[in-house]
Write a structure and sequence with these properties.
This is Rho termination factor. The chain is an all-alpha fold. Helix content is 51%, strand content 0%. The protein has five helices and no strands.
Length: 82
């Protein structure tokens, strides 16, 4: 798809690669638009090591509804599968 057809995508190469891996358009766009995604280089804290407050913040950022009613393990599952 031409770059001008996806004005909200900041890293077209990364987006296309993620779509080729089978990710949804929403998830591929979210990852490719993360400003520090390439800087982290896999150094982000594993979800299991994060506090519930950190997980809630992440869930809010990606738009998971009902997150405040979830326990920590349900939040982790929702984030991983969003």
């Amino acid at each position: 798809m031409a770059k001008n057809d996806r004005k909200s995508i900041k890293d077209d190469k990364k987006y296309d690669a993620l779509r080729d891996q089978g990710m949804s358009k929403e998830k591929a766009a979210r990852i490719s638009n993360t400003p520090d995604a390439s800087k982290k280089g896999g150094r982000a804290n594993p979800l299991d090591d994060r506090t519930k407050a950190e997980l809630l913040k992440e869930a809010k950022k990606i738009g998971i509804t009902g997150r405040h009613k979830m326990n920590k393990s349900t939040l982790i599952n929702a984030i991983r599968n969003h």
